């Protein structure tokens, strides 16, 4: 009886995963670039992907999970004070929340090269739904996904310098949305 049960479970698992490919992120080649803007300027930088994977079936992403190492926030100009401020409780509370996570729940078909991707994003332990457009390109070294994700930081209790929450900031206002340019390689 136990052998029959094991055989049935194996067949069911094979049926459910047939045609799905689990692709692992190449964390060395993947690039995450951020852009934060304020009234009198902007800052750009990078952050590193710690780990990630997605499942691909019938020209769609069916699931995925990406962990972002918040300790790796870097400013392109090498401003150590800015990097430390971004890691502080004013912004991302990196000591308390060392990682952020993007969980993908699915996508439209990438039949024409682009699709809408849906999931949830967790920053500072706060999770909100997210939706963005991504493009795919298959190359010799793997499958590349490209996206520009816009995140409203105030939804994740990142309120420092926000005109929504503080009065009389004048030209010190930091815009609530930041952009994350994603260049993701999976294999």
Count, helices:
2
Point out poorly predicted stretches.
4-18
- Main pleated sheet: 8 strands, antiparallel, barrel
Structural class: mainly beta
The overall strand count is: 9
What characteristic shape results from the CA principal axes? Answer: elongated
Distance between the termini: 39 Å
Encode the helix/strand succession as letters: HEEEEHEEEEE
How would you sum up this structure, described in words?
The protein has helices at about 1-15, 80-85, and strands at about 20-25, 30-40, 40-55, 60-75, 100-105, 115-125, 125-140, 140-150, 175-185. About 15% of the residues lie in helices and about 55% in strands. The chain is mostly beta strands and about 190 residues long. The radius of gyration is 19 Å and the shape is elongated. A hairpin with a 2-residue loop joins strand 3 and strand 4.
Key features?
eight-stranded antiparallel β-barrel, mainly beta, 187 residues
Write the topology of this structure:
Blueprint: H1 2-17, E1 21-24, E2 31-38, E3 41-57, E4 60-75, H2 80-87, E5 99-107, E6 114-123, E7 126-139, E8 142-152, E9 174-186
Antiparallel strand pairs: 1-3, 2-3, 2-9, 3-4, 4-5, 5-6, 6-7, 7-8, 8-9
């Amino acid at each position: 009886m136990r052998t029959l049960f094991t055989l049935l479970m194996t067949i069911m698992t094979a049926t459910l995963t047939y045609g799905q490919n689990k692709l692992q992120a190449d964390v060395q080649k993947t690039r995450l670039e951020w852009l934060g803007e304020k009234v009198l300027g902007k800052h750009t930088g990078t952050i590193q992907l710690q780990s990630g994977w997605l499942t691909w079936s019938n020209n769609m992403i069916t699931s995925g999970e990406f962990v972002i190492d918040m300790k790796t926030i870097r400013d392109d100009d090498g401003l150590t004070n800015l990097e430390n401020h971004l890691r502080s409780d004013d912004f991302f509370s990196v000591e308390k929340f060392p990682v952020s996570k993007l969980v993908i729940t699915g996508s439209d078909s990438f039949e024409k090269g682009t699709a809408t991707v849906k999931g949830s994003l967790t920053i500072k332990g706060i999770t909100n739904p997210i939706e963005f457009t991504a493009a795919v390109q298959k190359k010799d070294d793997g499958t590349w996904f490209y996206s520009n994700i816009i995140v409203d930081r105030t939804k994740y209790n990142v309120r420092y310098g926000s005109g929504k929450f503080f009065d009389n900031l004048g030209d010190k206002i930091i815009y609530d949305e930041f952009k994350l340019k994603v260049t993701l390689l999976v294999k």
